[in-house]
Amino acid sequence: MRRSAAMAPFAAVVLFCLLVPMMSAHDPHVPDLGRAMLPPGGEHWLGTDQLGRDLLTRTAAAGRTSLLVALAVTAATTMLGAVAGTAAGLAGGIADRLLRFAGAVALGLPGLTLALALAGVLTPGYATVLAALVPLGWVNCGLVARTATRRVASTDHVLAVRAIGASRLYLLRRTIGPHIAGPVLTVATADFARALIAVTSLSFLGVGLPPPDTDWGGMVSEATPLLVAAPRLAVVPALALAVTGLAAALMVDARRGLPGVQPLHGV
Fold it and tell me: Could you give the CA distance from residue 195 to residue 69 in angstroms, rounded to a whole number?
């Protein structure tokens, strides 16, 4: 019940971002200068921006882009981290030491600054955002996967299965994998929130997604020159980002209440 309640705000954000652009009669990307800077009203609930685009529809469309890019970054970092961490946890030795060294280096580096530097020398786009955020983003998940793998692999059940000749692939697929999924998913949820902030930060700084694609960070950047005259243009996407970040934090908190490694049972 607690998990369902924690997921409800995030589900509401996702539905808003998916359904509003589909149901709205306004194109979020096509300018209409004759309707520029209209105040909130019946046809445009949140008004229009400096190019006459409906602010509500554009916020939802930008949110859809923000969520999809953050999800792509999170999927890449989670896959890399889970594979590297599990392999290091099972192999031990030099593989384990290399992962811990990579973790120390990554945690000591200013990740967003490095991402900004890399994105600044590449052509803005989805591939650039992934290239900027994935190389260091997987390490946290890798360390958690490695710790969970070592803990599960040291249990009597797994030691007994290994003693009778079970392969590492069998152990990973039938015993270890299902029991490290909880910690990995918890880290992935937290990484999603961080990726969302990083993606919007890059766009705000002008090295994210190129026009006409935009996300919440790009909307805030576009609205900065009009912050005094029309603060709603920046407040609305910033508030949407804040609500989404809070919803993701609630999911992380709910997942942390779950046991990280379930009791082992027969294969």
Answer: 8
Three-class SS of 13-26: HHHHHHHHHHHCCC
Residue 63: what residue type?
A: G
94 vs 81: CA distance, rounded Å: 17
* Burial track 151-188 (b if 16+ CB lie within 10 A, e otherwise): bbbebeebeebeeeeeeeeebbeebbeebbbbbbbbbb
pLDDT in tens, 93-137: 888 888 888 888 777 776 667 777 776 677 777 888 888 888 888
Give the residue from 165, 199, 180 showing the smallest Cα distance to 63: 199
Structure tokens at 11: 């589900």
Token duo for residue 107: 């945690």
For tokens 């046991």, name the residue: 259
Tell me what percent of the chain is helix, strand and coil, each rounded to the nearest 5: 75, 0, 25
Q: Is the model more confident about 208 or about 27?
A: 27
Q: Which residues are registered as beta bridge partners of 48?
A: 54
Give the closest residue to 72 by CA, choosing from 3, 29, 114, 128: 128
Regarding pTM above 0.85, the answer is yes
- The more confidently predicted of residues 107 and 150 is 150
In angstroms, rounded to a whole number, what is the distance separating the alpha carbons of residues 147 and 186?
Answer: 14
Given a cut of 80, whether residue 21 has pLDDT beyond it is yes
Q: What is the pLDDT of residue 260?
A: 42
